[in-house]
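Input record (Table S2, row 352):
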Amino acid sequence: MRVDLSSLGWDDGFKAEYSPFDRPDQLPARVARVDRGVCSVLTAHGPVRASLGGEVLHRAAADPAAFPCAGDWVAVREWPDDRATIEAVLARRTAVVRATVSKDSGGQVLAANLDTAAVVEPLDPDPDLGRIERLLALAYACGASPLIILTKADLLADPASVAESVAMAAPGVPIVTLSARTGAGLDLLRPHVRPGRTLGLLGPSGAGKSSLVNAIVGTTVMWTQEQRADGRGRHTTTFRALVPVPGGGAVLDTPGLRQVGMFTSEAGLDDAFDDIRALAELCRFKRCAHDHEPGCAVLDAVASGELAPRRLASWRKLKRELTFATRRREARVTKSEIYRHRRAEQRRRARP
Ligand SMILES: Nc1nc2c(ncn2[C@@H]2O[C@H](COP(=O)(O)OP(=O)(O)OP(=O)(O)O)[C@@H](O)[C@H]2O)c(=O)[nH]1
Ligand SMILES: [Zn+2]
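Output record (zinc ion complex):
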């Protein structure tokens, strides 16, 4: 099986990045999937299973973000005994990074080199606007173009009106409404699924991400059967992976993202709340917290009905989380502070 790497995004920029690793026993490849330290990679000659080379392991020991992840371009060495190892991970153009609990960690990279980062949310049950805002901040922070995909349109009589309410939580972000079941709206993804482009899907479990990948690719590729090591029968593992699209391009599914500290970037948050950022420029004080300051344009906008109170509350919550996550990374947060933060969040949630 031959793989057209350029269709997967291999271009002059990556070629230049790769040149220091260009030697007869090495070849470029894109990581499709990582499974307990073993990577499935796509080379021009087809898929290869590769373990991590010494240099990569060494770097990853110091910084978990250096572990290869789905979407990475890597240098693979083929050994005479048919083993393959990943010898280098090329610089990532974009990366979805989730903050981890570990205080000395730069975070966990969930996906790399996306061109479009799509927040996937089902239309039924009702879309969760807070979750969309949170994932949108992650999408912006990753550096790819953000997109919102609303799935399961076949379950609603009027998906367009729900899409309109979602637009309030995502100013300026294109929204695609589709159904993986009927295929309606799939063609709207064409600008994002084409040769050289990678579409990444970020969304909660059950949003319909794997169904969407299957619909885009046209076959069932997202599941696999694995023989259990102890021989006690089979179990089915859903895996997340980069999947080449027959007409060119790739889709990358990420694991269902739970609502835990996901930010590493203030910029992502500001981008996701562009309406608040624009208003903030009109506040009397440059460093206005939009709390109770006089001359606060954000509070005025809420009072006049221009800005939904829900939107400001959501921004505040994510801002607090971000501040907290940053401090935790700076290792200045004690266990009791973590506890106090959790309690405070619980109390806030309990309030009507
Ligand atoms: N009616 C309808 N159901 C859908 C559609 N897409 C997915 N579903 C259903 O929604 C459920 C979840 O779909 P998945 O594709 O497994 O969702 P996922 O986001 O990959 O979820 P995880 O695998 O748990 O991460 C399944 O029961 C699907 O059959 C759709 O377009 N219409
Ligand atoms: Zn203000």
